[in-house]
Amino acid sequence: MGILLLSGTNAFAQESAPRIEVFGEYSYLRFNPTIPQLKNRSFNGGGGGVTFNITQHFGIKGELMGYGSTSFNVTTTAPIVTPKGTIPVGTFNSQGNMFTYLFGPVVKANGTRR
After folding, report:
1. Distances 51 to 33, 73, 113, 114 between C-alpha atoms, Å
2. Among 28, 44, 47, 55, which residue's Cβ finds the most Cβ atoms within 10 Å?
3. pLDDT at residue number 47
4. CB 63 within 8 A of CB 49
């Protein structure tokens, strides 16, 4: 019985997290503006990050993502009133890009992320 208990402890001890975890990812973002004359936009992006595991149950994670879109034109035939002011009549060209970042702690319980 004692041998079985000791071998179970050894098997559990071998399930340690790697010191550094590196990952890459793809992301899709949908932008739906509240002004009806503006069209919905789709952003494709990607990025990656790294997790540095200080102990088996605690680590620090950093993640960076970048999104880009194509240019688009909007033509208004009447002034648009918004809470921040009035948009005049005309044709407007716009391009949207976005960059996000995330840094923080990672806490693991029984070898799984929580």
Report:
1. 34, 41, 12, 14
2. 47
3. 95
4. yes
Output phi, psi for 18, to 5 deg.
-65, 155
Q: How far apart are CA 58 and CA 56, in angstroms?
A: 6
How far apart are alpha carbons 51 and 32 in whole angstroms?
A: 33
Instruction: Name the token pair of 60.
Output: 């620090």
CA-wise closest residue to 99 among 25, 33, 47: 47
Residue 107: both structure tokens together: 């806490």
Q: What's the pTM?
A: 0.57
pLDDT of residue 15: 61
- Is residue 77 packed enough to be buried (19+ CB in 10 Å), middle (13-18) or exposed (0-12)? exposed
Alpha carbons 103 and 50: distance in angstroms, whole number: 10
